Every structure is written in structure tokens, then in C-alpha cells.
Amino acid sequence: MKLRKEEKGNRLFYGLDKDLLDIRFELFEVLQKHNLTIREAVKILEITSKEIMISMKDERL
User: Fold this and answer.
1) How far is 61 from 57, CA to CA, in rounded Å?
2) What is residue 34's predicted lDDT score, i.e. its pLDDT?
3) Which residues contact 61 (CB under 8 A, 6 or more apart)?
4) What does the pLDDT look like over 10-55, one tens digit per residue?
5) What Cα–Cα distance (Å) separates residue 29 from each residue in 9, 32, 41, 45, 55?
6) In a 10 Å sphere around its CB, with 0-12 CB exposed, 13-18 middle and 19+ buried, how is residue 41 labelled?
7) What does the H/E/C string look like for the chain?
8) What is the structure's pLDDT at 24?
9) If pLDDT is split at 50, 70 and 90, which confidence band does 4 have?
């Protein structure tokens, strides 16, 4: 799995060269291994996605 960067107009998009369903399944496996509840997992994912968005904004500066 590797990160790819696409430019569409004046916007940058980052994506993974992997089927989204595979990514979700792998994520679910990780959450199960750590015995997280769905509520805990959602909170972690929200924080992670915010961190990723912030770091991607920083790269463009």
C-alpha cells in the first residue's frame, strides 16, 4: 500500500493505491486486536483524520 498524490485543478488529493474495502477490513482487524469499542475507535479515527488533514495543510505551506 502506498500513498499517491493527485492534482485536480488547484486542489491536491492524497489517496491510497488500495481498495477502500481492504483498508476498512484491515482497520477493523486492528481495532479488534486492541479490544476497542466502536465509540472509542470512532473517536481515535476522528483525531487521526484531523491530524492527517493538518499535516497535509502544513506540507503545502
Assistant:
1) 7
2) 80
3) none
4) 665 555 555 555 666 667 777 778 887 777 877 777 777 666 666 6
5) 36, 5, 12, 14, 26
6) middle
7) CCEEEEEECCEEEEEECCCHHHHHHHHHHHHHHCCCCHHHHHHHHHHHHHHHHHHHHHHHC
8) 66
9) low
